[in-house]
Amino acid sequence: MQNLSRRAFAALALAATVALAAVPASAQSVDALKKKGEINVGLLVDFPPYGTTNAQNQPDGYDADVARLLGKEWGVKVNLVPVTGPNRIPYLLTNKVDLLIASLAVTPERAKQVTFSRPYSAATIVLLGPKKTNIKAAPDLKPLKVGVARASTQDVALTAIAPAGTEIRRFDDDASAMQALIAGQVDAIGCSTTVAAQINKRQPGAFEPKFVLKQQEMAVALRPGQDALLTSVNEFVARNTANGELNKLYKKWLDTDLPKMQ
What we know:
Blueprint: H1 2-22, H2 30-36, E1 38-44, E2 52-53, E3 59-60, H3 62-74, E4 77-83, H4 88-93, E5 99-100, H5 108-111, E6 115-130, E7 145-149, H6 153-161, E8 167-171, H7 174-182, E9 188-192, H8 193-202, E10 207-222, H9 227-242, H10 245-254
Parallel strand pairs: 1-4, 1-5, 7-8, 7-9
Antiparallel strand pairs: 2-3, 6-9, 6-10
């Protein structure tokens, strides 16, 4: 019985040690980062123009510029750490990065794992069609052929609202859907405002957004419990939204104004 108690105690002690080791640096603050002199920011490099690589094969894009602006304001060196869609949250939770500026859309499921700042970016998904085509709302889609990238956000959003009789044509990617619209193979497409801007460059004045399918707001992600750091990030986002700095960066990369966010 005594041996069992000792084993039980040892097991509890080990579990406590593992639990403590797994607890992230929840007390991390800007002052702590300044003392360290640097901040590790995770970002995507395969989601242009939000996250991409430049001619020197270094991380770049809107998110990278936001991270650099953050580092400049805080007076710390910014280490841009490439992450992927699947590993970005694990990188954060295992302390490989201090925070994520990685086009992470705010969802209830993700909010169970990470703490989100106020949104610093957004991707607006619209229905884009020829100016001559009269489309004002979802019911107008019934007799039309509408293209989307298969299994994309716009596919999900369009499928949810399209009335029976709408012919949804699913393509392998946005580029294929865009080409189908330009070629007249579909009457409209669901796409991001980024794709819409590319189409407008190729055929100025020919197409226009008909209505918004969905707006995905993106936020900086932090580990749970980092209240001091969260306050500082929120102040950074609020200040640079109000003074127009985030809008300048957004227009630089997406050729459109930063959408209004909650």
